[in-house]
Specification:
This protein has 313 residues and is α/β, with parallel strands linked by helices. It is built from 10 helices and 14 strands. It has 2 domains: 110 residues, Alpha-Beta Plaits, CATH 3.30.70; 152 residues, Rossmann fold. It has a 7-stranded mixed beta sheet with strand order 10-9-8-11-12-14-13, with helices on both faces. A 4-stranded antiparallel beta sheet has the order 2-3-1-4. Strand 5 and strand 6 form a beta hairpin.
Length: 313
């Protein structure tokens, strides 16, 4: 199938309005290339290297891209988009150059083009995430390599909630531990726990697509002897307590089963909760403490929070 890439050269002020117009035109998502992103100073906690190509960014302003299928109505759609963006001037929105260009993209190229932005990245003292199509040599003897093929569904493992979860696992998982990973997604946290010498990892996800993805990544990292991936809702399939339980899911869901989590964490065990927006930090802490947990530490990255709590012995 062939697709058309609509590129709109505009301003930061107009990003939200232009994106909405493209959504209304039939785009399921947009790509934003901001000239300010290239020169942005990024926090470097673990020696991360950010490789950005200046050719991927405009010299000024912002380019908002959307993808629409090539059909007989495409010309009319493009004209309607141009007119809608031009109308934004009447609302005193600076739309800048408002240069709209159209190019054709083959679906096969589009499906793999994202890979050029994904490279090995060191996310903690020991963990480095490496895409399957990249060659990488460890730089230290105790470095732990997680190979990942995220596909288009489960991300690259570098989201703040995943990074903080792995950092927490690195601090608390001991050789021989039993780890339970609730909402495993790509399986990256389960793989990390296994590489930290957990004796047994029980990985859970309600989504059967996630279960298949996690199983594939578990096998890719040769930890299938210690990681069991199971389709299940939260802790419904768990009947053996864990030394460490990790849940990188939505805050509302975390708060819905803190009592169940308290029962399944061993006395003296650790419960790592992530996926929490900053605004919900205190709510989640109160929910955990209300179930009997003692909050040990709170990690924050950007507007995301990871809470590490302990079950009293």
């Amino acid at each position: 199938m062939k697709w058309s890439e609509l590129s709109v050269h505009t301003t930061n002020e107009a990003i939200e309005a232009v994106s909405n117009i493209l959504h209304e035109a039939g785009a399921s998502g947009v790509v934003i290339e901001d000239s300010e992103d290239f020169g942005k100073v990024r926090e470097d906690l673990f020696g991360e290297i950010y490789s950005l190509d200046p050719e991927d960014f405009p010299k000024d302003g912002v380019i908002v891209k959307a993808y629409l299928p090539v059909n007989s109505f495409l010309g009319e759609t493009v004209e309607a988009v141009k007119q809608s963006i031009e109308t934004l001037r009447t609302f005193n929105i600076d739309i800048g150059a408002n240069a709209v260009t159209v190019s054709e993209v083959n679906e096969e190229d589009w499906a793999t083009a994202w890979k050029k932005y994904y490279h090995p990245v060191k996310i903690s003292q020991r963990f480095t995430i490496v895409p399957t199509w990249e060659e990488y040599r460890p730089v230290s003897s105790d470095e732990l390599i997680i190979e990942l093929d995220p596909g288009m569904a489960f991300g690259t493992g570098t989201h703040p909630t995943t990074v903080m979860s792995l950092q927490a696992l690195e601090s608390y998982v001991k050789p021989g531990d039993r780890v339970i990973d609730v909402g495993t997604g790509s399986g990256i946290l389960s793989i990390g726990a296994a590489l930290l010498d957990a004796k047994e990892v029980h990985a859970l996800d309600l989504d059967e697509v996630a279960v298949r993805s996690a199983q594939s990544n578990v096998e890719l990292n040769n930890v299938q002897d210690r990681v069991e991936v199971v389709q299940g809702n939260l802790l419904d399939t768990v009947d053996v307590p864990g030394d460490v339980v990790v849940a990188n899911i939505l805050a509302e869901i975390i708060m819905s089963f803190t009592d169940d989590a308290f029962k399944i964490v061993k006395p003296g065990g650790i419960y790592i909760t992530s996926g929490i927006i900053g605004a919900y930090k205190n709510d989640v802490k109160q929910s955990l403490e209300g179930s009997g947990f003692i909050v040990e530490d709170v990690l924050m990255m950007e507007d995301w929070v990871t809470i590490i709590s302990k079950k009293p012995e």
